Amino acid sequence: MADQEQSFRVTCPDCDVDHEARTFDDSAAFVAKHREHTDHMMEWTRADFGLGLQPDPAWALTCETCAETWTFEGEGEALAFKQEHAEYTDHEIDDDPTREGVSADEDADVTAVIADLSEQFDDGVPEPLVVAHLGGDAAAARREIQKLKRQGTVFEPSPFRLAAV
Which residue from 151, 148, 137 is spatially nearest to 102, judged by alpha carbons? Predict the structure, then answer.
């Protein structure tokens, strides 16, 4: 790899193949060829599109006694902190961590993200960017995108790219 960090990274959980590229199209082409040769689905593990978009924290935990909220990348990390917090303070956090990112109105969130970003991409918004921008549970975001495709609210003008109707 070049000295400069690559923007797009995909990983195959079935065979541990990693690929990084500077453009979305290069990564998408690699994903398509990998699937053609192995029938494996690769996962987008990083998508830095240079748009200044950061995924929302996946999990939030609030201590009413401290009047403070912490954010974590995973539920396990949040639960571990909750347990440590009780051990190292005189109080416990009563509520479980809450998932941030995709909200109760997931349909509107997904289509709004696609609509907001569509002006920056001529041939559709890269799906990994939509998933990353939604934050939270990536698998849930992908399921929501698939549901919207089936409903006809979202379509793929080209592979791995999304557009809202």
Answer: 137
- Could you give the maximum distance between any two Cα atoms of the chain, in Å? 57
The two tokens of residue 99 are: 């998932």
- Give every strand in the sheet of 98-99, ordered side by side: 68-72, 59-63, 98-99
Separation of alpha carbons 165 and 162, rounded Å = 10
CA distance 124 to 70: 35
Taking only the tens place, the pLDDT of each residue in 113-154 is 888 888 878 888 888 888 777 766 677 788 888 889 999 989
What range defines the domain where residue 65 resides? 59-99
Pairing relationship of beta strands 68-72 and 154-158 according to DSSP bridges: unpaired
CATH number at residue 129: 1.10.10
- Reported as a single tens digit per residue, the pLDDT across 14-35 is 988 988 887 777 888 898 899 8
94 and 113 part of one domain: no
Contacts of 123 (CB under 8 A, 6+ apart): 157, 158, 161
Q: What is the DSSP letter of 153?
A: S
Confidence (pTM): 0.50
Distance CA 99, CA 129 (A): 19
